[in-house]
């Protein structure tokens, strides 16, 4: 799968550490060292740039099949590459639902054909996300898509018996259930975080306890049946506490936080701009502090985008009528840098852990999130942490404009992304021709 | 002030000014010929996504008495559950040249969205949005409270300093309560919310109001006014088995009846935004007692809505630049009212 092209990343800082030079050839890291050179290679001046393993997103909505007006696998994965990702997990709430081997294989193949990142479809836990009976989890696991992550994301597997069965069943193929923790009865018609702001705005509240109660139940279920559990996009201080407690008991649970929950709060709902309507909802400053602390101390394992593109029609309306969700692939690393690295709470090594190594491990993706070492697959991203940019959704690769960071000045830029040694992004620009001709 | 979306954004000065203007409007309404030419040639659209005959008629009457052209647009029954219709409707109204849009909508924040979307250039007046705000209702309540309770003589320029007002009932779902808490606080009144805990929102502790679960205890503190909120019977059977066990139990705890009315101070008045559920939150004795000002509220509603339309639409000099001194703002407005009244009479 060699493209023939070689890249010499001169004077880059792997994990933000000492500068060295890295040669990419034949799809792998061919050599590392200050003296490495290669006359045939394309040279990239890496001074000031941080080299990380390519980012892995455990939670992406690519919308295809079904809502190609909001995003396609091609546009979404191109956005992912521009955001520094080399692999994404495509959530199952498509139309038709990714609940059979046929649909997950289709998504997997469309991802391969697009060529921007490796697409790992997530399989639905229940048929049609209806929460009534298990989907054919085994068939999806054994398909060419090799599904390992199962989720009814957008809906919660709220029936405790069904959740127990799912946790048990996926052990047969080392799968994991990724739970969207939302007690449905406590959140009927809910519009935003329940608290001071919702009380004033007259928007029906989404209480923190609706998330925490499910997480508490699920960690106990996972302990009881000896399964591993992944908690999607946790958003409250209480959820962090429960995960911390569960881990201290030795329960095999992992947890994710989104970039937006690391930086935005429910105060943004005051303008009734549905761009800020998301599930789980933006919480309070206290919760933001708690999830940052949880990410820094390892209670929260990963950052995942929950990239949720929506058409203008679905956001250009009154709050209650608008869809939940915001885009995030092209801003995720910047938000993590700004909230965690620039503040001194995490190193670039930690960033590699939470945005690449740990999500790859949870998703059982063996060729991503690897060490930057000779012989390893050249799935890498080159970041300029000193750069700043103002976010303009119209200039992004995602098909949808619902970025919550419109007009906001964020730290850090992706300079280059490599998928198995091939540049998908160079000079901050997507390598459209190379990628399109590849397959 | 370009729009009226929430009482929370009204300053003390602005609020008193609206009440004073409403006072002038009310005075004109005592005359035989009630119509003023002030808004001749201007178009006011009543955009109602939710049924409310009484509020619509009140706004319509107010606009017509100021000689505005009124278009009633009832969007109820059409497919309004999706937001496109708000946008498309607004664009249609814009094309018709609406100078003001009076909007009633089931979604909290819809008037805010309309005002800030660029879909319409006219003034937006919130006539009730979801469980958020109903600012003209609060203004007419404040107007009524001021007229009865701020002491003898001309009430112009006064606020509600020191008045103690109890708001009783379904605060959780009430836009009237939200609007009143903010406005009455701005005007200096002390507000106590009285409701069963299930009908108070999480976060109410941040409001500028005291909270009690016991109506009798609050009545014992001798409030100057008691405002009864409508309690919808459906609340009893909705999610979670209902917000209270039975209408009877609600009435026992929170209904205003003859006994509780008698326990109130001599001067205290009873308000209700209507429509009333007689026998649930208010008994017939209380509703029909001389201390109930419920019918007067309706009349005051027209005067207050005239004032709001007038201040938002009649001449930018008086309304748009609130940073200027009120004195200089007030004078030309008073002049206009008097002059035009003369012409009309
Ligand atoms: Zn989710």
Fold and architecture overview:
- The complex is a heterodimer of chains A (439) and B (345).
- Chain A folds into two domains: 7-51 and 374-386 and 406-430, Urease, subunit C, domain 1, CATH 2.30.40; 53-362, Alpha-Beta Barrel (TIM Barrel).
- Chain A is built from twelve helices and 19 strands.
- Chain A has helices at 73-82, 101-114, 137-142, 160-169, 196-201, 208-225, 237-248, 259-263, 285-296, 332-341, 348-362, 432-438, and strands at residues 7-14, 20-25, 28-32, 42-45, 50-53, 55-60, 85-90, 118-121, 149-150, 176-179, 192-193, 205-206, 229-231, 253-257, 302-303, 380-390, 409-419, 422-426, 429-430.
- In chain A, the strands form four sheets. In chain A, strands 1, 2, 3, 4, 5, 16, 17, 18 and 19 form a nine-stranded mixed β-sheet that branches. A five-stranded parallel β-sheet of chain A has the order 9-10-13-14-15.
- Chain A is globular.
- Chain A starts with 6 loop residues before the first strand and ends with a helix.
- With 345 residues, chain B is an alpha/beta fold.
- Chain B folds into two domains: 7-134 and 298-323, Rossmann fold (3-Layer(aba) Sandwich), CATH 3.40.50; 135-296, Rossmann fold, CATH 3.40.50.
- Chain B has helices at 12-29, 53-65, 84-95, 110-116, 135-149, 175-186, 215-220, 247-254, 258-263, 284-287, 294-313, 316-319, 326-344; strands at residues 43-48, 69-74, 100-105, 123-129, 164-168, 190-194, 210-212, 225-228, 269-271.
- In chain B, the strands form two sheets. In chain B, strands 7-6-5-8-9 form a five-stranded parallel β-sheet.
- In chain B, helix 5 crosses helix 6.
- The two termini of chain B are 30 Å apart.
- Chains A and B meet through helix 5 of A and helix 3 and helix 4 of B.
- The site of zinc ion has 5 residues of chain A, from loops.
- Chain B: L-aspartate binds at residues 82, 175, 230.
- Chain B: Catalyzes the condensation of carbamoyl phosphate and aspartate to form carbamoyl aspartate and inorganic phosphate, the committed step in the de novo pyrimidine nucleotide biosynthesis pathway.
- Chain B: Heterododecamer (2C3:3R2) of six catalytic PyrB chains organized as two trimers (C3), and six regulatory PyrI chains organized as three dimers (R2).
- Chain B: It catalyses: carbamoyl phosphate + L-aspartate = N-carbamoyl-L-aspartate + phosphate + H(+).
- Chain B: Residues 162-312 form the Aspartate/ornithine carbamoyltransferase Asp/Orn-binding domain.
């Amino acid at each position: 799968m060699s493209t023939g092209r070689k890249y010499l990343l001169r004077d880059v800082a792997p994990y933000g550490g000492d500068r060295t030079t890295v040669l990419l050839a034949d799809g792998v890291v061919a050599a590392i060292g200050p003296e490495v050179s290669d006359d045939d290679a394309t040279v990239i001046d890496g001074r000031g740039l941080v080299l990380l393993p390519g980012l892995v997103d455990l939670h992406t909505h690519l919308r295809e099949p079904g809502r190609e007006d909001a995003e396609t696998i091609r546009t979404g994965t191109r956005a992912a590459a521009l955001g520094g990702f080399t692999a994404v997990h495509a959530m199952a709430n498509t139309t038709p639902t990714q609940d059979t081997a046929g649909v997950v294989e289709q998504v997997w193949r469309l991802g391969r054909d697009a060529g921007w990142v490796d697409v790992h479809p997530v399989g639905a836990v229940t048929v049609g996300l209806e929460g009534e009976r298990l989907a054919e989890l085994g068939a999806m696991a054994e398909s060419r898509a090799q599904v390992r992550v199962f989720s009814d994301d957008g809906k919660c597997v709220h029936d405790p018996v069904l959740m127990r069965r799912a946790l048990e069943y996926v052990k047969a193929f080392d799968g994991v259930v990724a739970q969207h923790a939302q007690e449905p009865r406590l959140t009927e018609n809910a519009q935003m975080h329940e608290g001071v702001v919702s009380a004033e705005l007259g928007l029906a509240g989404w209480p923190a306890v609706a998330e925490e109660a499910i997480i508490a139940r699920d960690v106990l279920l996972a302990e009881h049946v000896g399964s591993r559990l992944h908690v999607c996009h946790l958003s409250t201080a209480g959820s962090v506490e429960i995960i911390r407690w569960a881990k201290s008991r030795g329960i095999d649970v992992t947890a994710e936080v989104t970039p937006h929950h690391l930086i935005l709060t429910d105060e943004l709902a005051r303008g009734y701009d549905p761009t800020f309507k998301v599930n789980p909802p933006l919480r309070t400053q206290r919760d933001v502090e708690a999830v940052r602390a949880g990410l820094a101390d390892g209670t929260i394992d990963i950052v995942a985008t929950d990239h949720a593109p929506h058409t203008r029609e679905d956001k250009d309306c009154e709050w209650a009528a608008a869809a939940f969700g915001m885009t995030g692939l092209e801003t995720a690393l910047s938000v993590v840098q700004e909230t965690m690295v620039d503040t001194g709470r995490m190193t670039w090594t930690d960033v590699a852990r939470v945005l690449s190594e740990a999500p790859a491990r949870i998703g059982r993706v063996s060729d991503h999130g690897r060490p930057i070492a000779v012989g390893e697959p050249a799935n890498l991203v080159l970041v300029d942490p000193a750069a700043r940019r103002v976010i303009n959704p119209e200039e992004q690769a995602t098909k949808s404009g619902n970025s919550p960071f419109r007009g906001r000045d964020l730290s850090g830029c992706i300079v280059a992304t490599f998928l198995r040694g091939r540049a998908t992004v160079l000079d901050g620009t997507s390598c459209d021709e190379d990628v399109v001709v590849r397959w | 002030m370009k729009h009226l979306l929430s009482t929370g954004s009204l300053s003390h000065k602005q609020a008193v000014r609206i009440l004073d203007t409403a006072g002038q409007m009310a005075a004109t309404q005592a005359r035989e010929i009630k119509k003023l030419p002030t808004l001749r040639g201007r178009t006011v659209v009543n955009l109602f996504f939710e049924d409310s005959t009484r509020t619509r008629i009140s706004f319509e009457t107010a606009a017509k008495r100021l000689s505005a052209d009124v278009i009633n647009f009832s969007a109820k029954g059409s497919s309004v559950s999706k937001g496109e219709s708000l946008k498309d409707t607004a664009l249609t109204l814009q094309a018709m040249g609406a100078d003001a849009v009076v909007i009633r909508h089931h979604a909290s924040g819809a008037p805010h969205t309309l005002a800030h979307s660029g879909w319409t250039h006219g003034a937006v007046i919130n006539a009730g949005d979801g469980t958020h705000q109903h600012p003209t209702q609060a203004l007419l309540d404040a107007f009524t409270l001021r007229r009865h309770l701020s002491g003898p003589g001309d009430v112009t320029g006064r606020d509600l300093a020191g008045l103690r007002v109890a708001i009783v009932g379904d605060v959780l779902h009430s836009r009237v309560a939200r609007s009143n808490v903010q406005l009455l606080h701005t005007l200096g009144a002390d507000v106590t919310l009285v409701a069963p805990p299930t009908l108070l929102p999480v976060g109410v502790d941040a409001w500028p109001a005291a909270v009690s679960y016991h109506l009798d205890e609050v009545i014992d503190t001798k409030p100057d006014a008691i405002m009864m909120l409508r309690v919808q019977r459906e609340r009893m059977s909705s999610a979670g088995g209902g917000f209270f066990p039975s209408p009877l139990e609600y009435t026992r705890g929170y209904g205003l009846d003859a006994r509780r009315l008698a326990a109130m101070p001599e001067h205290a008045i009873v308000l209700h935004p209507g429509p009333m559920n007689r026998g649930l939150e208010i008994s017939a004795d209380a509703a029909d007692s001389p201390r109930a000002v419920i019918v007067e509220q309706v009349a005051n509603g027209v005067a207050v809505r005239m004032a709001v339309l007038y201040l938002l639409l009649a001449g930018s000099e008086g309304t748009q630049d609130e940073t200027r001194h009120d004195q200089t703002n007030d004078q030309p407005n008073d002049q206009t009212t008097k002059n035009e009244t003369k012409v009309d009479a």
